[in-house]
Write a structure and sequence with these properties.
Number of helices: 4
Order of helices and strands: HHHH
Shape: globular
Helix content: 40-55%
Structural class: mainly alpha
Distance between the termini: 22 Å
Low-confidence stretches: none
Mean pLDDT: 93
Number of strands: 0
């Protein structure tokens, strides 16, 4: 699929709003897309936990609260050290690989 086709698919399935397709992603944006993908496929979206134990929990955007809670509760996101989530930090390819692997393992599709 081309990037245009992939973007259209993501918008159609409510995985992404389709804005800023060439921009870098934050960690919370990436987690939110995984969460929305899980919802669209009927995968488990329960098991969320409080984020209060993270020093930067207040930095998680409103739109990403449920997604980040779910990701932490299901072992998809583990924080970046020092008790932080770094929700606004850039998500690297390594982050994506780790999140995706943990997501697939958690959902039993790996």
């Amino acid at each position: 699929a081309t990037m245009t086709e992939a973007r259209s698919w993501a918008v159609r399935h409510n995985v992404s709003d389709g804005s800023n397709p060439g921009g870098a992603m934050t960690r919370q944006q990436m987690v939110t897309m995984l969460y929305r993908y899980a919802m669209s496929k009927g995968y488990k979206t329960t098991g969320g936990v409080s984020l209060d134990s993270f020093t930067d929990a207040s930095g998680v955007a409103d739109y990403a609260q449920d997604a980040m809670s779910w990701a932490v509760g299901n072992g998809i996101v583990q924080g970046t050290g020092g008790g932080a989530l770094n929700p606004n930090g850039t998500a690297t390819r390594a982050h994506f690989a780790a999140f995706l692997h943990r997501f697939c393992t958690s959902m039993g599709i790996a």
